[in-house]
Design a protein that fits this description.
Elements: E1 6-8, H1 11-14, H2 68-71, E2 77-78, H3 79-87, H4 89-97, H5 104-122, E3 127-129, H6 135-154, E4 159-168, E5 171-182, E6 188-196, H7 204-225, H8 231-238, H9 248-256, H10 264-276, E7 285-292, E8 298-304, H11 308-322, H12 349-352
Parallel strand pairs: 1-3, 2-5, 6-7
Antiparallel strand pairs: 4-5, 5-6, 7-8
Helix pairs in contact: 3-4, 3-7, 6-10
Length: 370
């Protein structure tokens, strides 16, 4: 198979998964939400009523209370978490607190999407399993993947599953870009694949979530190639040890790729230097492609207009929850139809209170109809 090998390792320890983080539940699969319009949310009737109706936690922020990032033991945030947050913040929080609560239908959509992404990646890259025993090894595998893909992109080729990371607004973000390639005009284009169970385009609310995701990818990638992402930032946020020697298998694969490194710090500096001196351009175009899971037919594509000020404003609002500046918020009345598709509708505090939870620094959203 043409292309360079992409190594995989103990990704969970590093904050990365080996597959793209681009697939989310296809919320239209559980019902024809096009027909719901702006109807207020109502319970679908969930058999899992053993969960306390007040929700898993009573979240009253105190001055010395841990922030959500501290409470969930997070050193970084996935772009996918922030994208899901833009759909419904309260739903995203419940997903963290009750990870086993997801419906089988949504889990099946995610699984099918992951399989399609893997098949597309194998068209360009071979996968090589590497044993990793430390978080430094796991991060090293991602850095080796970056080092192997930068020359391909420099030569005008196409790459898939490109890891991105960096500090934005004081919080460390990580993600995986589906595909980067050059257009016929010579522009560097990010192409994001979204697969859907039903052969129909998503509603505007879900498109907006997807636009936010690819816009964040651009922010992080651009910072990486501009030299704005530092090794010190990665080491600080992820609590890594630069002096730690890499595992034997990691060193072996680094050597096979032409890199003679022994410590994690050596490899990290090499990767950061390679990105900075690569002369890679910033991303010029953002494209989202929606395809049907069963037939692989393209349902439609959307070109995203990047609006940096708007993206950063939205990001700061989302980070306000993670850094403890405000309580989580659910949807407002005009998007209450989302509750009809939510696994947590029967336990949702926001919904039960009519959207009246006060925010520490911001005004609460419009009261929801019940």
């Amino acid at each position: 198979m043409d292309g360079t090998g992409r190594e995989s390792g103990a990704a969970e320890a590093a904050g990365f998964e080996d597959l793209s983080d681009s697939e989310f539940p296809d919320f239209s699969e559980l019902g024809d939400i096009e027909e719901l319009g702006n109807q207020p949310g109502s319970s679908l009737g969930d058999p899992r009523k053993q969960v306390n109706s007040q929700g898993p936690y009573k979240r009253k922020r105190e001055a010395d209370a841990p922030t959500p990032m501290e409470r969930f033991y997070l050193r970084c945030l996935w772009v996918s978490d922030l994208s899901t947050q833009s759909w419904c913040e309260q739903q995203m929080v419940y997903g963290k607190e009750l990870p086993g609560f997801q419906s089988a239908e949504k889990a099946a959509v995610l699984g099918a999407g992951a399989s399609i992404h893997l098949a597309r990646e194998l068209e360009l890259h071979d996968l090589v399993n590497i044993h990793t025993s430390t978080k430094e090894d796991a991060w090293a595998v991602k850095l080796l993947n970056i080092l192997s893909m930068v020359p391909i992109l420099q030569s005008g080729g196409t790459i898939r599953e490109f890891p991105v990371f960096g500090e934005i607004e004081g919080v460390f973000l990580v993600g995986v870009i589906d595909e980067l390639h050059y257009t016929s005009k010579g522009e560097l284009e990010l192409a994001e694949l979204k697969t859907r169970k039903r052969p129909m385009m998503p509603l505007e609310a879900q498109k907006e979530k997807d636009r936010f995701q690819v816009s964040l990818y651009k922010c992080i990638f651009d910072a990486m190639v501009k030299g704005q992402v530092t090794s010190a930032s990665l080491v600080h946020h992820m609590k890594l040890s630069p002096e730690l020697l890499l595992g034997s298998q990691v060193q072996k694969h680094a050597h096979q790729g032409g890199f003679t490194v022994k410590s994690f710090g050596d490899l990290l500096e090499l990767a950061i230097l390679s990105l900075t001196l690569s002369d890679l351009p910033v991303i010029d175009a953002l494209k989202i492609e929606y395809s049907h899971q069963e037939t692989d037919a393209v349902l439609g594509t959307e070109m995203v207009v990047f609006e940096e000020n708007r993206v950063r404003e939205k990001l700061r609002h989302h980070l306000g929850y993670w850094t403890g500046l405000r309580e989580p918020q659910g949807v407002d009345v005009k998007e209450a139809w989302k509750c009809r598709m939510c696994d947590y509708a029967t336990i949702c505090e926001w919904r039960k209170s009519g959207g009246r939870r006060a925010s520490t620094l911001e005004q609460p959203a419009q009261k929801m109809s019940r």
